[in-house]
Specification:
The structure holds 2 protein chains of 2 kinds.
Chain A (H helix, E strand, L loop, with lengths): L1 E12 L2 E13 L4 E5 L6 H9 L6 E6 L2 E2 L5 H7 L1 E4 L11 H9 L8 H5 L4 H4 L10 H15 L3 E5 L7 H13 L6 E5 L3 H6 L2 E6 L2 E7 H8 L12 E2 L2 E2 L6
Chain B lengths: L3 H11 L8 E6 L2 E6 L4 E5 L6 E5 L4 E5 L2 E3 L4 E11 L4 E11 L6 E11 L4 E11 L6 E11 L4 E9 L4 E10 L4 E10 L4 E10 L5 E10 L4 E10 L4 E10 L4 E4 L2 E4 L5 E9 L3 H8 L5 H12 L2
Parallel strand pairs in B: 1-5, 1-6, 4-7, 5-8, 6-8, 7-9, 8-10, 9-11, 10-12, 11-13, 12-14, 13-15, 14-16, 15-17, 16-18, 17-19, 17-20, 18-21
Antiparallel strand pairs in B: 1-2, 3-4
Helix pairs in contact in B: 2-3
Classes of the chains: A alpha/beta, B mainly beta.
């Protein structure tokens, strides 16, 4: 179980406090898949970064497997079994795909890799490729997801995995994420895609740095269906319930 | 007879675990101590000045090792090496200098390599510099390389200096003739209060010649680096200069690339960048379980590989 207990995160900007997250409460259970969705800039990535330790909360607590991890570093959390596939994968000068996978898998010499294959990348073509500007955005994204799957942590955090992936690879991506979600795993995916939002067990809607609603995919999906792309959501819903016709 | 220290230094500068394969000359503390030629690849001492001649006959293939070792303090070693690679030959030439300074005096090696790579030949030249030693004496290396790349020849220079060299002033001067190609990779890491200067001048003569010079460096602590790569085209040549540096601690780096075209159809480009290690790179590796120190080391070792 991974819990966020009244978590808040604020930054100082020009001597003013900017609240990125406010009063976030989440209980993420082993064996479940979660999707976090919401408008751009709402704080979705910030929730994941707080779980990973990239952001340390300014309020509240984060607990994992009964242990308070609120002030643990990214490294410590990774070693406890939390992993992150970044929205914009980092590029390196001099490191190869193979180097990253060797760190992820604690292996000194990788010559083949099913995680690359599962993402539609032939190891013979990609293991020796440098992780620099010679790889396209789509390739970098698929390699990023492959390294998280290769790391195989208990908690898997995917930050918009679909961004930059072509339609044909997207179906394969969903299958791979699903098939690797074993019963001890917690999988959290930030997404705006219907296929992912209807595949998961629970949807968490983040708006303005707080959780607007959360619940089973079946009950929440119809309510958030238009939310992410709709600027006039407030004019047809009240307390999370649709009560008027869509003005569009 | 090589001591254990000699063997360790040879391993560092020339990646040698046993006697060098192919032709070789080993210089230690100002003296040639071992030498071996092959048919068509001659290695012999010069007369009248310190240094050696390496003469490769046309069409020959092979490897030549010419490492220099300094194992005593208080010495200043100077050599003039002349290397002639015959037409259509294909050679790997491993140079390099390892200094172990056990005392308080300076240990210095200055080497001038004059290299001619004749028509259609291929040369891969690897020069690695390394310093260490329990003494407080300085370790100084000043290599100067003058190289002529003749028509249709292909030359790859790999110049590496990682750790242990207190001061270095490096100079590389190249002339590339029509249809010749020159590729240079320079890798450097300085720490402590070390200083390094690297001057590169590549002149492209005539048509269809190509040159690329890539420098990657890391400056740590209070060390200082200056790079001045210059590329001048006198004909329809193409060239590119890249200087990429990671700066850390209280170090200082200056990169001053210059490109000059003396012909309307020359194509030249340069880029230079200096910056700290990107936070996102550190974050990615830490999210895979490395500490920030391990992540930094991984990034630097990849950057300089």
């Amino acid at each position: 179980m991974l819990t966020l207990d009244n978590v808040g995160f604020a930054l100082e900007e020009d001597e003013q406090k900017v609240h990125i997250l406010k009063g976030v409460n989440l209980q993420l259970e082993a064996g479940k898949m979660y999707a976090i969705t919401g408008p751009n800039g709402s704080g979705k990535s910030s929730v994941l970064k707080t779980i990973m330790g990239i952001f340390l909360p300014t309020e509240g607590k984060v607990e994992f497997q009964g242990q308070d991890i609120t002030n643990l570093s990214v490294t410590e959390r990774a070693r406890m079994g939390i992993g992150y596939a970044f929205q914009q994968p980092a590029r390196f000068k001099g490191l190869k795909v193979k180097d990253l996978l060797e760190v992820a898998m604690h292996d000194d010499d990788i010559t083949d890799c099913k995680y690359l294959r599962n993402m539609g990348l032939c190891p013979d073509d990609y293991l020796e490729r440098p992780l620099d500007s010679s790889l396209s955005g789509g390739e970098m994204k698929r390699i990023e997801i492959a390294t998280l799957l290769a790391q195989d942590p208990t908690v898997r955090l995917f930050d918009e995995p679909e961004a930059g992936i072509d339609l044909w690879s997207f179906t394969q991506l969903i299958n791979v994420v699903k098939e690797s979600h074993y019963e001890d795993k917690i999988t959290v995916i930030i997404s705006h895609q219907e296929k992912i939002l209807t595949m998961v067990d629970e949807i968490i809607l983040v708006v303005d740095g707080h959780i607007e609603m959360k619940g089973s995919s079946e009950s929440v999906w119809p309510q958030v269906r238009d939310y992410s792309g709709c600027a006039c959501f407030n004019s047809c819903t009240k307390e999370g319930e649709i009560y008027a016709d869509c003005p569009r | 007879m090589l001591t254990a220290l000699d063997k360790r230094l040879l391993k560092e500068v020339a990646d040698l675990h046993r006697d060098p394969p192919g032709a070789y000359n080993i210089r230690k503390d100002g003296q040639g101590i071992d030498r071996h030629s092959l048919p068509g690849i001659e290695v012999k001492p010069k007369t009248g000045e310190p240094g050696i001649e390496v003469i490769v006959e046309p069409g020959k293939e092979g490897t030549v090792h010419i490492p220099v070792l300094l194992t005593e303090s208080d010495q200043s070693d100077l050599v003039y090496n002349t290397i002639d690679i015959g037409a259509e030959a294909d050679i790997l030439l491993v140079a390099g200098c390892g200094i172990h300074n056990p005392g308080g005096g300076t240990a210095q090696h200055d080497g001038l390599h004059t290299i001619t790579v004749r028509k259609g030949a291929r040369l891969r030249y690897v020069e690695k510099h390394f310093g260490e030693g329990e003494g407080k004496g300085e370790r100084i290396l000043n290599p100067k390389t003058e190289i002529i790349v003749e028509e249709g020849a292909y030359v790859e220079l790999e110049l590496v200096q990682i750790r242990g060299v207190d001061h270095t002033v490096r100079s590389t001067v190249a002339q590339v003739k029509p249809t010749g190609q020159l590729v240079m990779f320079e890798r450097m890491l300085t720490d402590g209060e070390q200083s390094a200067e690297s001057d590169i001048e590549v002149k492209l003569y005539g048509d269809e010649c190509v040159a690329r010079a890539v420098s990657r460096s890391v400056a740590q602590d209070k060390s200082r680096q200056i790079f001045r790569p210059r590329l001048i085209a006198y004909g329809r040549g193409r060239g590119r200069v890249e200087c990429d540096s990671i700066i850390m601690g209280e170090a200082s780096i200056r990169s001053i690339p210059e490109i000059a075209a003396e012909h309307a159809e020359a194509e030249l480009a340069h880029e230079a960048a200096i910056g700290k290690i990107a936070g996102e790179q550190l974050m990615k590796l830490m999210a895979l379980g490395l500490t920030s120190e391990e992540a930094e080391e991984k990034i630097i070792s990849g950057f300089l590989s």
